[in-house]
Amino acid sequence: MDNNPQQPTADKEVQIGKYKIKVIRSLCIGAASCVAVSPNIFKLDSENKAIILQGDDALENILMAAQSCPTKAIVIFDTETNTQVWPA
Ligand code: SF4
Q: Which residues have CB under 6 Å of ligand 1?
């Protein structure tokens, strides 16, 4: 039921360490620079959109992956300081 292809996929938030990360699917163009920078966290799905894995990576590297996205499709929220760290 979760993967009903008829339903639009909602932007899913994933918590990794202190960060909440999400990919805005409507902005993602499948450029895959996030995957190149942080392959443990980002992966392209069958629609060529980035999805977030519960993988392991340094938070700085995840931030760098988000900053590498040409369309700013990756949003990072710091749950400790309650601030959005990217896009700044
Ligand atoms: S870098 Fe941005 S546009 Fe490219 S796959 Fe990742 S989220 Fe999508």
A: 23, 28-34, 42, 50, 69, 71, 73-74
